[in-house]
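[Amino acid chain]
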Amino acid sequence: MSRFKLFLAILLIVSTSTLGIAQEDTSVVKKDSVNIAMLEAYNKRLHEIENQRLLDSIKKMELEEQINALKTTDNLKKEELQAQIQEIQEKETKRLSEKKVRIDSLKKITKGYPVVGFFNDTLFLLYSKLGSFSPKDRAEAISKRLQTLGSNINFDEHSLKVENAETTEDIVMDQTIVMSVTETDALWNNTSKEDLANQYKDIINTIVLKYKEETNYFNIAKKVGLALLVLLIIAALVRYISKFFGWTAIKIQLQEDKKIKGIQLKNYTLFDAKRQVNVLLLVNKILKWFTIIVAIYIALPILFGIFPWTEHFAETLKGYILNPVKNILWSFWNYLPDLITIIIIIIVFRYILSGIKFLRDEIARGNLQLTGFYPDWAAPTYQIVRVLLVAFMFVVMWPYLPGSDSPIFKGVSVFLGFLFTFGSAGSLSNAMAGIILTYMRLFTIGDRIKIGDVSGDVIEKSLLVTRIRTPLNEIISIPNSNVMNSHTINYSSEASVKGLIIHTTVTIGYDVPWKDVHSALIDAALRTEFVLKEPLPFALQTGLEDFYVAYELHAYIREANKQGTIYSELHQNIQDVFNERGIEIMSPHYRAERDGNESTIPKGNLKKEE
C-alpha cells in the first residue's frame, strides 16, 4: 500500500510539472486579462512551492513507513524520525503563512472573475488558477456546468456532495465534478478548503433550486399574466395623465382675458393675455410629457423585475435614479460640516460689516468725530473696507468650498483672474484714481468746478467717472484718471466761507476821472443780486494804455453755481450806472473818428441842454 502511495505521489509531481510547463507555454499566448499578467509571477512561485510541498509529502510518507517498520525497542531512531516529520510540518506551516502573505498583498491590486448564475448574477469570485485553467477559464467552465445543472430534472437539494481528493475538495453530482476548491482558493477567502467547498455547495444548491422554481410553467404563466397587468396599468395611467392635462389646457384657454390678463412690468407689457395663455399651454404640455415619462420610468423596473432574466435591467434602471440621488445625499451629508463652517463665517463677517456700517452712519451724521477724518470720507471708506472684508471672507471660505482643491476649479480661477487683470487694466486705473480723488477732497457733489476746458456742476462721483452738468445742461462724463491728470478749479469750496470773487473789466478814456469810474463800478456791483455787501466790492486799475485806462471790478458772491446769471446782471447794471452818470463805454478810437455822430449813451440818460 505504501508503494502505491509513493507511485501516486511521483505521478502527481510529474503531472504538476507538465501542467506547469503547459501553463508557461500558454503564457506566451495572448493574456486573457490584465489579472493574468499580475498573477503570472505569483503563479510561477506558487508552482515551485507546490512542487516542494509534494516532495515534502513524499518524504513524510517515507518517514512514517520507516517509523511503522521500526521495532518497539528502537526508540532513539524513532525519535529522530519523529523530529524530521515535525520539521516537515513546520515547513508546511511556514509555507502556508508565506502563501497567505502573498495572497493578501495581491488582494489590493487583483480583481476576481465571477461565476455567473442563471440570471447574470454573480455567485462568487475566483482568483487562482487550477492546473492549466486560468481564473477566468475556471469561472466560465463552472458557469457552463451550472447551466447544465439547471436543466437536470433530477436535481434536488441533496444532489450535490463535497468529496476530498488529495489536494482539492470537489463538489460533485453523481460522478460529475461541478468544481474543485483548492488550498489557494481557501486562502483567498480566509477560510479552509472544507468550509469554502461547503459554502460554495450551498450557494450552488440555492441558485439551482431557485432557478428551477422560477422557470416552471406555472410560475412563468403567472409572471406573464402579472406583466400584462402591469402593461395595462401603465397604459391606463398614461391615458388618464393625458386626459388630466388636456382638461387643464382647456381650463387655461377659458381663462383668457378673465383671470389671465397678461403680465406688465410698470408700463411695459411683458406678455399680453394671448401670449401668456400660449406660454402656460406650453408649460402644461411639458409637464404632461414629463409626468408620463416619470410614470413609465417608475413602472419599467416593476415590469422588468417580474421576470428573473430581466431582473438586472430593473436594478440598472433604479440605479440611474437612485445612485445619483444617493450620491447627492451622501455628498451633501459629508459636506454638511463644511457648509456649517461657511455659514458661521458668513454670519461673523456679516456682523462685522454691520458694526462698520454703524460707524459709517455715525461719522457721516457727525455724531462721531475722528481727528483728520472727514464725514464725506465715511461712505467711500466703508465701500473699500467692505470689499476688502468680503475678499478676505472668500479667502477664509475657499478651503471649504466644494471642489476647491480640484485642478479644474483652480484652472478656472486662474483663467478668470487672468481675464480680470488684463481686461480691466483701464478700469483699475480709473478706480484707483477715484479712490485718490475721494480722499483728496478736490470737490463734492453740487460744486461748480472746471476740469481742463470743461466747467459745470458736479452731479455724480463714482469709482470710475466724474459726471458734470454744464451751464448748457450738457452731461459730460470724465474718467477719473483724466481728472487726476488735469488741473481742477473748484469755485464752490471756499465760496460759502470766504466768498468767491467774480471780476470783469471795462476800458474808459482818460477824459473820465478815475474816481467816477470806481464809484460807478462799485454801485453797479451793489445793485447786483447775490453780490455781497461785505466784503465791499472794489475796483482796480489794471492798465494805462495809449488811449484808455483798464479798470477791473471785483465783487464777492457765495452762489458759485449762479455765476452766469450774476455776471449777466452785473454787466447790465454797469451799463445802466455808466449811462446814468454820462460815462460813455466805448473805444476812444471810435470817439475820435465819429465826425459829429451822436453819443452812444441812450437819449433818456443824456443831460438836457440849458
Q: What stands out?
A: The first helix runs from residue 2 to 26. Residues 218-306 form one domain. The mean pLDDT is 79. DSSP finds 16 helices and 15 strands in the chain.
